[in-house]
Design brief:
By secondary structure, the chain is an alpha/beta fold. The chain contains 13 helices and twelve strands.
Length: 332
């Protein structure tokens, strides 16, 4: 599979009272055509900011975003607007993403109209998109967004993205605000449209169970940096970074006879205004050594298409030993 999206050394900063926050610090990854990359981590780690920076909403302060061989960060506003249809996003809260007073058909057609699409042709595509997400165009097209449930609004939002024929779909916590029963329906829908259209998905979530269910590869973020990335099967079975291991241990297991996981991740996430030197996880890491405060660990190979940013990656029997280490303290 060829690469559709290449992100290198992505940096995004924001001015806040008291200083500047570097929300994304040197993030890089590759997304192949037809593939889903899950981006996971605790709230505030920079997942959503990364997704928006890829779309240039707003543009990153540093780094490269190459989409289909085109560098997005240097494009003019006109040229970027021409490419918008090929890169679409599904937001976390569908009710906020849709104008509640507008009719569904107008909401879904908006991108086509902006692109200069003939209204009759646009209407045909809108009906096809609504039908594809399981909505009857005749029944819902003339109604307004505020009349629908959260799950139905998310279907409308997905139709609005699909109608433009995208190649890349960024899903920013697309089921986080939905009931559990509705989450499965929306996830199945995303899988179906991905396979049907050969889409690439960047799937952003804090839920490791959801990411495992929908992704081919997974990238784990902590305090603005990717600390581990690889095939889902490898990362979930053999996590190489202590933070990834702690996240996986925290996932509930529906088996009363299952052995107890390691101790829960404790301690506060450091302030992004003043992150720790070296490895940003070291203040909560049971394996931290002086070198962790002195040098930032680069992503390094720990297996086939599997990388971790750790000076002391977990391997082999280390996984079992790590279960019994308290995830507190670390170097200061």
């Amino acid at each position: 599979m060829t690469a559709l999206l290449r992100v290198e050394n992505l940096v995004k900063r924001f001015r806040v009272p008291g200083g500047t926050v570097e929300a994304v610090s040197g993030v890089g990854f590759t997304l192949r055509r037809g593939q889903t990359l899950g981006l996971v981590g605790e709230s505030g780690c920079g997942k959503s900011t990364t997704g928006r920076a890829v779309l240039q909403l707003p543009p990153p302060d540093e780094g490269s975003v190459r989409f289909g061989g085109t560098e997005l960060t240097t494009l003019s506003r006109r040229r970027l607007r021409e490419l918008r249809g090929r890169l679409q996003i599904v937001w976390q809260d569908p009710r906020s993403a849709l104008n509640p007073g507008r009719k569904v058909r107008d909401l879904v057609a908006e991108g086509l109209v902006i692109a200069g699409q003939d209204r009759r042709a646009a209407g045909e595509r809108v009906d096809a998109a609504l039908a594809e997400v399981g909505l009857d165009p005749a029944a819902v097209g003339g109604r307004r967004a505020h009349e629908f449930s959260g799950g139905q609004c998310q279907r409308i939002a997905i139709a609005r993205a699909l109608v433009l024929g995208p190649e890349l779909l960024i899903c920013d916590e697309p089921v986080a605000s939905l009931d559990v029963s509705v989450q499965a329906q929306v996830l199945n829908l995303l899988r179906d449209v991905k396979d049907r259209h050969g889409l690439s998905l960047l799937f952003i979530s804090h839920d490791l169970g959801v990411v495992r269910n929908v992704s081919d590869r997974v990238a784990v973020m902590y305090l603005g940096r990717i600390v581990e990335i690889g095939e889902v099967s490898a990362v979930y079975a053999r996590p190489a970074h202590p933070y990834t291991r702690a996240l996986l241990d925290a996932v509930p297991v529906p088996d009363p006879d299952a052995p107890p996981p390691g101790p829960p991740l404790t301690g506060e996430v450091p302030s992004p205004l003043d992150p720790p030197s070296g490895c940003r996880f070291r203040t909560r890491c049971p394996l931290a050594q002086p070198v962790c405060a002195e040098r930032t660990p680069p992503l390094r190979d720990v297996g086939d298409d599997h990388q971790a940013a750790c000076h002391f990656p977990l391997t082999g029997d280390d996984h079992q030993a790590a279960c019994h280490l308290p995830l507190t303290g670390g170097t200061t």
